[in-house]
């Protein structure tokens, strides 16, 4: 299986260290307020200057600087502007402090309430109060009264800080059940802040993060929706944090196979980021990348290609050709080339990405191993299974060394190696490996985890390849029942299982059962993916094959002609899947006694396979052998 680089938006802060001579040293307000002893005049001068510098752009920062410049009215005005225009609720503490120092404790409490509701950060407030006592000793009585007010307001939420710390440690240790229990305590406390509290939305984010780690996407979805609802109300649709949540919700839709919903959201986020940040901002490029990925999942490979090419060009321009995000774009473009049957293009790009990742990240970095994996898949697509085998054995050894034998990526490598064994006709070796993978996934992830079910499916495929159709049938039926239970009837993985079961019915001569299931899969894929999605066309192809098995060659002809036309339209005339459809149509012509038409088409398929895949590719050799 090829691996995409899925980039979720995470705000990154760049820290640049600059060495200055003593004469060039720049001292700002945040530096001078920490110095001892306090130089009142210096503080007022520097902090006022910093306030003036930031008053037209960074209102929240300006409100902080004006506070220590003793320009309290300006501090309050800037804080209010920051809250109203930028939704920066941390500024409520600044306006609260300025109001307090003006002697209005009741009004200060209102500002502190807003800060508590949305940030609930006692540590930051205690640090603020200590700075105020240091710089305004003449107002110590007022400041202590303000502290008392804050501490009284905080009392119902006093456990929050320790619970947050506990949750983070539990999640780090992968104690997900413990993390959920801690979050439940935080939820009970935070609900008292109001249903529109950003602090409450942060708790929902915690739930969604844990459920994501547990691959429980339905529960993850529930909390992502709750968080987004609060952020849209409190921050507005165009706020960066709201867009991040929208982006993450789209990813969850994708994990659930709800790619149409992901598409709507990704298009919205991209448009808003282009509007608010500009077309070349790194966050905008992340959105463009994610939209491309959704196009890919919808089978719109041509659209994905256009966008991936654009993202790559912009990242090369903005970030440079060796930046990790640029290499991720190069990787994604290569994968898309592969889906479009442009294996030669994919090969060139994957070799380039691998070389650059080895140079930039090192030979054992996880992304380097991902590139190695993708190159192995392309070798396999080109019929170079021996080359794929060498690479996959290397990847497996490195992942076992770096990640451990039971890590999910290690098990994926083991699965890919088993698949290559199968393609090389080494089905017994494939079987040993598939049984090992299934046992490990059941141990690591549990019997009903999607990865475990995928391994069960792959073992069933190996049984089928070995002609053990009865064993394959038992396992495919079990996998399908579990996928329907855990993911739902319409999830893409469920439909793949249904398709595999139908194929096994066919192998067992149960063509009527295969027909019922193939018709069901086709109808569901048309409904969920659309009539032109590659998986839908695969189902159409399989149904045509079943018609042939039942002697319904006229029906098979209609369907094969339709599949060929749609594949030519969506994938291109020379795509390997298009050539498979052409080959199938030729055999249907033969079944109908139209041998001259069949011969013309078979000769065309052979010529195109030699051109596209090479004369030694297994499919080309198959075209040569069959009359």
What can you tell me about this protein's structure?
The chain is built from 31 helices and no strands. The protein is mainly α. Helix content is 76%, strand content 0%. The chain has a domain at 33-156: Alpha Horseshoe (Serine Threonine Protein Phosphatase 5, Tetratricopeptide repeat). The model is unreliable at 1-25 (pLDDT under 50). The longest helix has 19 residues, at 259-277. It is elongated, with a radius of gyration of 30 Å. It has helices at 29-32, 40-54, 59-68, 72-86, 91-101, 105-118, 122-135, 140-154, 160-172, 176-190, 198-213, 217-234, 240-255, 259-277, 282-297, 301-318, 324-339, 343-360, 366-381, 385-402, 408-423, 427-445, 450-465, 469-486, 492-507, 511-528, 534-549, 553-570, 576-591, 595-612, 618-625. The two termini are 33 Å apart. InterPro entries: NLR-like, TPR-like_helical_dom_sf, TPR_rpt. Keywords: Signal, TPR repeat. It holds the Pfam family TPR_8. TPR repeats lie at residues 453-486. Residues 1-22 form the signal peptide.
């Amino acid at each position: 299986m090829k691996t995409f680089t899925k980039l979720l938006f995470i705000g990154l802060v760049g820290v640049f260290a600059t060495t200055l001579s003593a004469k060039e040293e720049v001292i700002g307000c945040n530096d001078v307020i920490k110095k001892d002893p306090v130089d009142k005049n210096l503080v007022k001068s520097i902090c006022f200057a910093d306030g003036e510098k930031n008053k037209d752009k960074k209102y929240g920062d300006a409100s902080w600087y004006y506070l220590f410049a003793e320009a309290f009215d300006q501090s309050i005005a800037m804080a209010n502007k920051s809250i109203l225009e930028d939704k920066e609720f941390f500024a409520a503490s600044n306006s609260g402090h300025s109001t307090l120092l003006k002697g209005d404790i009741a009004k200060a409490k209102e500002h502190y309430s807003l800060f508590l509701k949305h940030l609930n950060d006692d540590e930051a407030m205690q640090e603020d109060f200590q700075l105020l006592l240091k710089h305004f000793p003449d107002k110590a009585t007022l400041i202590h009264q303000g502290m008392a007010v804050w501490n009284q307001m905080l009392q119902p939420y006093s456990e929050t800080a320790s619970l947050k710390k506990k949750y983070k440690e539990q999640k780090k240790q992968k104690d997900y059940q413990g993390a959920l229990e801690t979050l439940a305590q935080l939820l009970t406390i935070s609900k008292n802040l109001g249903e529109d509290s950003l602090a409450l939305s942060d708790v929902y984010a915690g739930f969604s993060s844990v459920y994501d780690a547990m691959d429980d996407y339905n529960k993850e979805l529930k909390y992502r929706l709750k968080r987004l609802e609060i952020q849209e109300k409190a921050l507005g649709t165009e706020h960066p944090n709201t867009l991040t949540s929208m982006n993450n919700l789209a990813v969850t839709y994708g994990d659930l196979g709800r790619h149409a919903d992901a598409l709507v959201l990704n298009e919205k986020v991209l448009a808003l980021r282009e509007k608010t940040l500009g077309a070349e901002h790194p966050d905008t490029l992340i959105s463009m990348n994610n939209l491309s990925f959704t196009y890919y999942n919808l089978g719109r490979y041509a659209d994905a290609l256009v966008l991936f090419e654009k993202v790559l060009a912009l990242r090369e321009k903005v970030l440079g050709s060796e930046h990790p995000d640029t290499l991720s774009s190069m990787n994604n473009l290569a994968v898309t080339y592969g889906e479009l049957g442009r294996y030669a293009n994919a090969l060139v790009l994957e070799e380039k990405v691998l070389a650059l990742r080895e140079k930039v990240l090192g030979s054992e970095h996880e992304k380097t191993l991902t590139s190695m994996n993708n190159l192995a898949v392309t070798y396999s697509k080109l019929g170079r299974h021996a080359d794929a085998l060498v690479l996959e054995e290397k990847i497996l050894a490195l992942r076992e060394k770096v990640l451990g034998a039971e890590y999910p990526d290690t098990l994926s490598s083991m699965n890919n190696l088993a698949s290559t064994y199968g393609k090389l006709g080494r089905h017994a070796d494939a079987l040993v490996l598939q049984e090992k993978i299934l046992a490990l996934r059941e141990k690591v992830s549990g019997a009903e985890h999607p990865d475990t079910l995928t391994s069960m499916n792959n073992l069933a495929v190996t049984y089928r390849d070995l002609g053990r159709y009865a064993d394959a049938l038992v396992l495919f039926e079990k996998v399908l029942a579990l996928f329907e239970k855990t993911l739902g009837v319409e999830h893409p993985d469920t439909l793949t299982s249904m398709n595999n079961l139908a194929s096994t019915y066919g192998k067992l001569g149960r063509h009527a059962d295969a027909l019922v299931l193939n018709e069901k899969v086709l109808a569901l894929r048309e409904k969920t993916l659309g009539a032109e999605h590659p998986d839908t066309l695969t189902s159409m192809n399989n149904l045509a094959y079943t018609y042939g098995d039942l002697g319904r060659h006229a029906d098979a002809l209609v369907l094969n002609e339709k599949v060929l036309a749609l594949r030519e339209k969506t994938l291109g005339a020379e795509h390997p899947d298009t050539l498979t459809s052409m080959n199938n149509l030729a055999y249907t012509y033969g079944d109908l006694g139209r041998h001259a038409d069949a011969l013309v088409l078979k000769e065309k398929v052979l010529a195109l396979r030699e051109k596209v895949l090479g004369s030694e590719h297994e499919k080309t050799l198959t075209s040569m052998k069959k009359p």
